[in-house]
Structure formats: C-alpha cells, structure tokens
Amino acid sequence: MLSYRHSFHAGNHADVVKHIVQSLILDSLTQKDKPFVYHDTHSGVGRYDLTHEWSEKTGEYKQGIARIWEQTDLPEEITSYLNAITELNDGEELRYYPGSPRVGRAHLRRQDRMVLTELHPADHPLLEQEFHRDRQVSIYKEDGFARLKASLPPKERRGLVLIDPPYELAKEYYDVVNAIGQSHKRWATGIYAIWYPVVNRCDIDDMIKGLKKLDIRNILQIELGVSADTNERGMTASGMIVINPPWKLESQMNTILPFLKEAIAPATGHFKVEWIVPE
C-alpha cells in the first residue's frame, strides 16, 4: 500500500519528537571530524508547506511544532532542531516544516553524505526536486528496507539509520524487526533509530519483544504521549527506539521531554525514557 501522505501530518507532536532525537544523534556524530552517513528508509518529500490545504485540513502541526514555535524559554538541547526549521523560513513566521531528509541535510558537513529512499510515485519526484544536483545526497525509488540491506556496511563505518515506515499494515512492525536483525549483522556499530506510532499498544509491545529476541544490546526507548492509550482510532503517543544511542541522549531527552509535555499536552501528556536492553 502507498496511500500514506505525510503532508497531512507534518509538524505534529510525533514529528517533533522524531526530529529532535534525529538532530541530537546527528549532533553527536559531528563531534568527530571523521565522515558519517545518514540513511533514511522512508524519506517523504523533504519539506512540507504548513499552509497547504492538506496540512490545514488536519491542523496537526498546531498541536505540535506551532506549540514549540511560540515558546520563549527553550531548552538549549533543541537548538540544532530549531535551526533546521529556521533555515526554511523567513523571519519569525512558520510556514515550512522540514522532513527528516531536510533535518539530516542541515547537519551534513562537506565530508558527510545522505542516502534517501522513497517509493511513493507522487512523493519521489518532489524529493528529487528538493535535492536537485546535491552531490552529497543519493536518492532511490525502491523499497526502503531493500536499499538499506544493499547499502550496509557503509564505507564511513559511522552514521545513523532512520527507519520510519507509515505502518499502514500490521506486518510493517515485523518488517522493522527483521530489517534491524539483518542490518545489525552487517553493521553492528551503526546507530539505528526506529520511529513508532502508538495506535495499538499491543503492536509496539510485540515489536519490542521481537527486538529483544535479536540478542542486541544497548537499546533505548523514548516516548511522548499526548493522551492515555485507547482502543479508539487515533495516535495517542509516539516514540523512538534507538540502538547504540550516543551516551548523552538519555539525559538530553530527560531534559527535553518534560518541556515538550508542558508545551504540547500539559494536562494529559506523559513521557518515558527507558532502556529496553542495557549496554
């Protein structure tokens, strides 16, 4: 299925958490001069116009990045994330929101590179257009998991893989576990960040059980919820599962998540930072 279009959801609370974690990991990789690769398995279009009718139809960004944008007392830890957004906007007005490829590109130095994969027939041309003639960016129109398998291990031996499928089908949770199992065998020292939505908590529990069976160490879970779990339709929370996280990430998110909770969902929000498997 290729019905999912992220334009309806860009800049929502899930994007905020995902891209903050992504930015912090990439920040850590820039602390050394050695080159790194950023690999994105489900890239989308790169940037999103928050004034587009699709974005206005759902208004999800109004309960996400718009809540952060209006804050004056911001944690220092989210500076690079906010810089990636500022790069796309003139002045103080928030119109464009960066997808994960744009967040990734904002962190690349001359020696680094980025691999993007997008299979959707409408989104892929827009992604190509976004990074037209950018020699540090390789773009593929193929299955994201297949491209990941073919790309590992990278020549740089350092980097981040972001895995964030739309989870339109229940099997995609299994696909993620399978991809991690195969990828870790090829590149055990890489950083892997898995985004997940909490629509049905059982799906997340099953995915975590699957990851535990892989016998991989050093797995951190980061989650922000805007309401309690429910059996009704809709995403109540989202999170990132990070394999081989930078050593500062746990403490950084323990600082950031309370701020996000108060800014986005002060009455009903909740968060956690927990080790699924310790180092």
TrEMBL record:
Keyword RNA-binding: yes
Keywords: Methyltransferase, RNA-binding, rRNA processing, S-adenosyl-L-methionine, Transferase
Pfam families: RsmJ
Domain of life: Bacteria
A GO molecular function held by the record: RNA binding
Catalytic activity entry: adenosine(2030) in 23S rRNA + S-adenosyl-L-methionine = N(6)-methyladenosine(2030) in 23S rRNA + S-adenosyl-L-homocysteine + H(+)
GO terms, biological process: rRNA base methylation
Transmembrane segments: none
N-terminal signal peptide: none
Binding site for S-adenosyl-L-methionine: H19, H42, S100, E118, D143, G144, D164
Top class in the EC scheme: transferase
Active site per UniProt: D164
Gene Ontology cellular-component terms listed: cytosol
EC numbers: 2.1.1.266
Residues marked Interaction with substrate rRNA (site): Y4
PROSITE patterns membership: N6_MTASE
Oligomer status and interactors: Monomer.
Function: Specifically methylates the adenine in position 2030 of 23S rRNA.
Family statement drawn from the similarity comment of this UniProt entry: Belongs to the RlmJ family.
Name of this chain's protein: Ribosomal RNA large subunit methyltransferase J
Source species: Aliivibrio sifiae
